[in-house]
Design goal:
Elements (H helix, E strand, L loop, with lengths): L4 E2 L13 E8 L6 E8 L4 E5 L6 H8 L6 E6 L2 E2 L5 H4 L4 E4 L11 H8 L10 H7 L1 H5 L10 H13 L5 E5 L7 H16 L4 E4 L3 H7 L2 E6 L2 E6 L6 H9 L5
Parallel strand pairs: 1-11, 4-9, 4-10, 7-8, 8-9
Antiparallel strand pairs: 2-3, 2-5, 5-6, 10-11
Helix pairs in contact: 3-6
Length: 249
Amino acid sequence: MSEPLTTGASAPTAGPRPALEVRGLTVRNVPSPIVDVDLDVHTGETVALIGANGAGKSTVLRAIGGLVEAEGVVVWHGTDLRPVPGHERAALGIAMVPEGRRVFASLTVEENLRMGAGVGRRGPWDLDAVYELFPLLERARRRRAGAMSAAEQQAIAVGRALMANPDLLVMDEVSLGLAPVVVAQLYDTLAPVFASGATILLVGQDVGRVLDLADRVYCLLEGRVSLAGRPIELGRDDIRAAYFGTGVS
């Protein structure tokens, strides 16, 4: 494979040190392995990972969250995360909305949300703030999460992550398994979060919508970065080639 297609704005970039620095990230023995991936996320920006199914996007997020064994370097605000267990990374300000939602089915909606607050971080997100963002959760707060629809469970998963008051919100396939109209409603609901200056690392199936939200984007192809840059500076043909591997040898 040739060198990744890039623009002058692709990472790593000059200027202030990124909040999150990933160098040489390699994950083996998983369904979607990744090889020698570099990426940065700066404070206050939304960075998107795109790519076809099996490209390794979710694997990258799991490695950052400490959920899979990985080689390479992951640095968070100057701290090497390699010795930090996954369950302790939330206390450092990294909260994940996992692929497939993974709510606690036997617990109520409110109990699920309170699980996010267990890391003890202070900030603007509490039950009242989450219920204001997702009024449907307040109305169903005493229902078992397992009895909720897929869209409602996705709202629980996002709300649970916000309750941790993260410095980095990692969102993996929030639209997975949802009807297009529900996806549009979900992203509309989340617009205040994206507009708030939060630091977000996002994987999404709806490439057009993700590119509209992102300050910068990385495209993965067969576990490697095939394209990196600002969406406004990337040509549609370049994105298609990087996504599907057409014209890339």
